Amino acid sequence: MIGKFFQKPGADQQHRVPPGQHLASGFPVLTYGQTPVVNRDTWEFKVWGLATPKTFTWDDFMAMPQNNFTADFHCVTTWSKLDVQWTGVKVTDFLQHIEVDPKAVHVMEHCYGGYTTNISMDDFIREENFFAHTLFGEPLPPEHGGPMRSVVPHIYAWKSAKWINGLEFLDHQELGFWERNGYHHRGEPWAEERYSS
Ligand SMILES: Nc1nc2c(c(=O)[nH]1)N[C@H]1C(S)=C(S)[C@@H](COP(=O)(O)O)O[C@H]1N2
Ligand SMILES: [Mo]
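Output (structure tokens, whole complex):
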């Protein structure tokens, strides 16, 4: 059913909406628990596990190449938003600044507030993934993950970690918050990988 929160996609957009999804009007907020208060001045981003431990500041991230991105966003609760505009740092550019052990096959994304989500290295190191600090030209609002979040457009958006503050590199898969609670371990929207069986 198309309710007031959903738009019927136009013919040109229909092919970009995965099965079982509807276009949202506006940009809904989907958070488990409270929105943490995170300040850019004290923001820190750490890497650990199967990578040489390193801590980055806000200025460190701002000194990396900045790019604009336009990406579709698919929440497993069945809403999608097309053409979201972001600014931030490509994952592939960030990886130039760290040393990852070749034995790492999986990554746990960690966040202020305690949320976690897991992703394979193959899904994580794709060219189109990024860390975003700007949404439609404005500083990323706290409810959408500001000051910094990850965006992984080709996977359901629960892998796009809001308030991200670290990456833990692993030689095996561990499960993040929603993955431990019944959601799919990968979450590819076109295959409707919603729940783990
Ligand atoms: N830290 C954190 N990141 C999170 C979540 C969360 O609850 N906490 N929710 C996830 C889910 S289920 C979705 S759909 C998107 C929603 O992003 P939005 O609130 O900006 O729309 O963030 C993801 N990242
Ligand atoms: Mo979601």
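The longest helix spans residues 58-62.
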